[in-house]
Design goal:
The chain is α/β, with parallel strands linked by helices. It has 16 helices and 13 strands.
């Protein structure tokens, strides 16, 4: 009688792809038939965040070619031991030297890696990459200022995504980046000074810029610099300490074909008087966009304020999103500083993201007082007693707020928001052991 071991390799590989990491680890010890399929997915994503576990993983990568060649994404996290420039001798320094040599040997074996995230606060983390070249690497991000960063980038001209967020811009040796050209680059997070050096002719599609100062004169200069990518740029995300009412108009006039724009104010304050002024400036700029599909105006929140969005916020923002939808017919997704998120479902009919309890309460109230077209209301009433999986709008078992509370059917709450919106929630970075 045929058994599971008689299945073709393609099916066994698909089965292994769907299994959790713990099960894959156990599956590696079952038989030689299952081991290669489990190994291939067990080592697909690595988060090297602890010395003990990391040493074990490094030894596996060095000794097991299949495990090493299966790696596609590596996250080097601050949990690793790192060196400071002041540590130049002693047993701790000798241990770190041996540790980084081992890590470097292991990384040199992962020749198929496509994505590396180097999150070290000190220069020691770059030692492991000094002699490494990854022919398939297309995405690299770092929050540190490694001394060998320029040479590492020079060895990888095929990079498509490059995110460099140094804590001190003055620490970057700009002269070392001279002559570097990344012609395939399409997503960047770079200091303005580096942007003009290494990506002048690249087909940039996405830009994240966290470095613009409060000086209003810097805004038009930066946006004008981005206008060189006006034929390819579709996504722009600006992070600044405070609002700047001129930003939207500069973006709308110099980058009218952009499809997604996000402005994040890094200074908390949901009820600051400047919020209203900035929203008015946004409304004036909207008619100048020709292709804008997503607009996100956000405020960084402390943990205490993470769930502070109320029903009154939805009442106010619902009126605003209808006005904005009329001014910009291409707009489909809109997020306000209060935390409300809206999706256009047809014409100028907008629905909130129903993963917030306040959104469900407001929507039930709005639907009850005929604020939506009859056919939309009728279709939603049918969903109030239905079951299914969570969709984009959060219409899982949608019914009255009191009924949902009584059976515990809130699939997502404010506390779970960060997990729901994580792009890697299904394939997260985890550390594994031998």
């Amino acid at each position: 009688m045929p058994t599971i071991t008689d299945l073709p390799d393609e099916l066994l590989d698909e089965i292994a792809h769907l299994l959790p990491k713990g099960t894959l680890f156990s599956l590696c010890t079952v038989s030689n038939r299952f081991q290669p399929h489990a190994t291939r997915w067990l080592y697909r994503y690595l988060a090297l965040a602890g010395n003990g576990a990391t040493i074990k993983i490094c030894k596996v990568l060095i000794s097991n070619k299949l495990a090493a060649t299966s790696v596609r994404k590596v996250l080097l996290w601050p949990g690793l031991a790192f060196s400071r420039t002041s540590l130049t001798g002693g047993p701790f320094y000798l241990y770190l030297s041996a540790f980084y040599k081992l890590l470097s040997r292991a990384l040199a074996c992962v020749v198929n890696v496509e994505n590396i995230r180097l999150m070290f606060p000190y220069c020691g983390g770059s030692l492991s990459l000094d002699a490494c070249t990854f022919p398939n690497l297309h995405s690299f991000a770092t929050t540190m200022e490694p001394h060998t960063l320029a040479s590492f980038i020079r060895r990888h001209p095929q990079l498509q995504e490059l995110h460099i967020s140094p804590s001190d811009l003055r620490s970057i040796p700009l002269s070392e980046f001279s002559g570097i050209s990344l012609s395939s680059l399409n997503s960047i997070c770079l200091p303005q000074s580096l942007m003009s050096i290494i990506s002048p002719d690249a087909p940039i599609q996405s830009v994240l810029s966290p470095e613009i100062e409060d000086d209003n004169e810097e805004i038009p200069i930066f946006i004008k610099q981005l206008s060189r990518y006006c034929t390819t740029l579709t996504e722009l995300h600006l992070c600044r300490p405070h609002w700047n009412a001129e930003v939207l108009m500069h973006v709308a006039t110099l980058l009218p074909k952009i499809k997604s724009f996000t402005f994040t104010r890094m200074t908390p304050g949901l009820h600051h008087h400047s919020n209203a002024a900035f929203l008015e400036a946004c409304e004036k700029a909207l008619p100048f966009f020709s292709s804008l599909s997503q607009l996100r105006i956000e405020v960084v929140r402390s943990r205490e304020l993470s769930g502070s969005t109320s029903v009154s916020n939805y009442r106010c923002d619902f009126k605003m999103v209808q006005i904005w939808g009329n001014k910009c017919p291409t707009l489909n997704i809109c997020v306000f500083p209060s935390g409300t998120a809206w999706h256009r479902i047809e014409d100028n009919v907008w629905m909130p993201d129903l993963h917030h309890k306040a959104a469900i309460r407001w929507f039930y109230e709005a639907a009850s007082v005929e604020q939506f077209p009859f056919h939309i209301k009728g279709s939603l009433q049918g969903l109030w007693v239905s079951s299914g999986r969570v969709d984009t709008l959060g219409l899982l078992n949608f019914m009255s707020p009191s009924a949902m509370e009584s059976v515990g059917l809130y699939p997502q709450t404010e506390e779970d928001e960060s997990e729901f919106y994580s792009s890697d929630s299904d394939e997260g970075d985890i550390g594994i052991e031998e």
